[in-house]
Amino acid sequence: MLARFFIPDKFLVILITTLLLATFLPVTGKAADYFEYVINCAIALLFFLHGAKLERSTVIAGLVHWRLHLCVLTATFIIFPLLGLGIGILSPSLISPELYAGLMFLCILPSTVQSSIAFTSIAGGNVPAAVCAATASNIIGIFLTPLLAALFLQRQAGGVSLDSIEAIMLQLLLPFILGQIAQPFLGNFLAKYRKIVGIVDRGSIILVVYAAFSHAVSTGLWHRVSANDLIIILIVNGVLLAAILAITTYGSRLLGFNREDEITITFCGSKKTLASGVPMATVLFAGQNIGAILLPLMIFHQMQLMVCALLARHFAQQTKHESDDGGY
C-alpha cells in the first residue's frame, strides 16, 4: 500500500526523460538561440496564466488569518535560507559551489500551490487558509526570491546582478500583473479548460529544463557532477526536508495553532515550487550553468511529494481515529 507513494509521478518521469534527451541530444548553436526566444515567450505565458487563474477574492478572504500566513512566510523565506546557510557553514567542502548555489536557490524559493492545497485537503487541514498562504508565498516570492538571491548567492554561480532582478520583474512580474488584470475576463475560461492550462504549465517547464540542461551538458555538467555528488545532494535534501517538517509541525503547536492550522502550516511551509523555480533560475542565472543549479530543486521536488503524501495520509488517519473515538 505504501509503496505506491514512492513511485515517481508522471511529470518527474517526463523531466528525467527530458534530462536524458538533453544529455544525448542537446540543442546547441543557432538552434539554441531560437530556442531561447521560444522559452522566453513560454515563461511569460506561464506567469500570465498564473496571474489569470488567481482569484483576488481568495487572497482577500485569507488575509484575516495573518498569524498563519506569517508562520508560512517565515518558514519559507527565513528558516529555509538559514538552514541552507547552516549546511554551508557546517560542511563547506561537502558540496561543490555550483550544487551549493542550487541548494541555496532552492531554500529561497516560494512554496508550491497545487500540492500544498492537495495535501492539506487530504490531511483534513484548513484548505481556504492553504489556498491563501500558498498563493501569497508565490506572489511575494516574485519580489523576494530575486532579492534573497542577490543577498545569498553573490559568491556562488557567478552571483546575481541588478540586471537579473530587473529582468525577472519584467519577464515574470509584468506578465503576472497582466494576468491579474485579465482574470475577470479569462478566469472562468481557464477554469473550464484546466487540463489544457496544465499542459501549457508543464510544457513550459519541460522546455526550460531541456534548454538549461542542454547548455549545462555542452559546458561539461556530467564531468563536474559525479554519482557521489548526487548521493550527497540526496542526503542533504533529506536532512533539509526533515528539519523543516519538524520545525513547522512542532513550531505551530508551540504557537497554539489548532490541528487544522498546524496541518496547513506544515504543508505550505515545507515545500518549494518547481513550477516557478525553473523559470526564475533561467532568468536569474542567464548565461550560467543552470543545469547544476536546478539539480537540487528537481530532487527535492520529488522527495517532498513522496514524504508529504505519507504525512498527509498519517494526519488523515489520525483525524479519523480521533473522530471514531468520540472527539478531538
UniProtKB/TrEMBL annotation:
The keyword Membrane applies. Keywords: Membrane, Transmembrane, Transmembrane helix. Gene3D superfamilies: 1.20.1530.20. The chain crosses the membrane at residues 12-28, 34-52, 64-87, 99-119, 131-152, 172-191, 203-224, 230-251, 263-286. Pfam families: SBF_like. This is Bile acid:sodium symporter family protein.
